[in-house]
Amino acid sequence: MAFLNSKSSSYQFQTVNANLKEPWLKKVSIDWKKYWPLYLMALPAILFYLVWLYGPMWGSLIAFQDFSIRHGFLGSPFVGLDNFVKFFESPFAFRVIRNTVMINFWNLVFGFTLPIIFALLLNEIRNKYFKRVVQTITYMPYFIAVIVVAGLLVNFTSSDGIFSDIIEFFGGTPSNLLAQPELFRTIFVGSEIWQFLGWNSIIFLAALAAVNTELYEAAIIDGAGKLKQIYHVTIPGIMPTIVILLILQVGSIMSLGFEKIILLYNPLTYETGDVISSFVFRRGIENAEFGFSAAVGFFNSAVNFAMVIIANRISAKLTETSLW
């Protein structure tokens, strides 16, 4: 009997070992025949990433060249790290890095936490019609074009705009608020919160809908009030979603779109409003310093990549939730 068991175990081991040694092309072929509809469905997304995200990475070579359109990638001279050195020796390097980090930091503090609080409040509303009205009103700003939002801000913050009228009503002196460097970040972050509050709360509302209702019933039986239910049931239930989104947000701490910035700032507010993306736009597009601007963008992406790795590892140790 022992001999038979030994023989059976040996046969199983040999079968598994033979499967492991099976050519990978054959495995791919078998997998393709079995799941080809799923592969076809995923093909457009794969092509999108290859063409629009991975393909342009070839352009990173510009960061190490004195690039000119006339000579192209192959003809432009290689300058090594000169473009990076030129950026860090620039008097504007610290300014644009500081402004980018500060604006993203306040966006993280308020723009990330307020949608969570808003979703928690909406989740407690039992009148479904009132809830839908509130959701619709808060979602609408997201669909307004950036240039329209910037135009509204320019008009509202001008010396004869509605905000200046309010300031004058309370005894202040009306002025162009966007011309004051100390107010630029407040105006920018405030407009971001207004525009994205409702939209960013959608994913948290979806996570709240997935929380097991039996946990609330158990909490009520134990005598927990609304606040304790939120603290002990609701927040732990959506914590994985919060952590994943927080990791992604931290990973973009050095990224800030230039469109809204260049529509709102002016030379008077460069000190607090000029960020990496707007700096790259001016040097790369307006001054045609393609190698220099590519080096700044490369540095920006490298820092974001490092921040994602660090945030993910910290999250994995503290919360046991991570991207990978």
In short:
Helix content is 73%, strand content 0%. With 324 residues, the chain is mainly α. The chain folds into two domains: 63 residues, no CATH class; 246 residues, MetI-like fold, CATH 1.10.3720.
Structure description:
With 324 residues, the protein is mainly alpha-helical. The chain folds into 2 domains: 2-64, no CATH class; 73-318, MetI-like fold (Orthogonal Bundle). The protein has helices at 2-20, 24-54, 72-75, 82-88, 93-111, 113-123, 128-139, 146-156, 162-169, 181-200, 202-209, 213-221, 226-250, 258-264, 270-273, 276-286, 290-318. The longest helix has 31 residues, at 24-54. The two termini are 46 Å apart. Residues 1-21 have low confidence and may be disordered.
Segments where pLDDT lies below 50 for 5+ residues?
1-21
Tally of contiguous helical segments: 17
Task: Classify the fold: give the CATH topology of the largest domain.
Answer: MetI-like fold
Q: For the CA atoms, what is the radius of gyration? A: 27 Å
CATH superfamily of the largest domain: MetI-like
Q: Helix fraction?
A: over 70%
How confident is the prediction overall: mean pLDDT?
A: 86
The largest sheet is: none
CATH arch. level architecture of the largest domain? Orthogonal Bundle
Q: State the order of secondary-structure elements, H for helix, E for strand.
A: HHHHHHHHHHHHHHHHH
Number of strands: 0
Structural class call reads mainly alpha
- Give the CATH class of the largest domain: Mainly Alpha
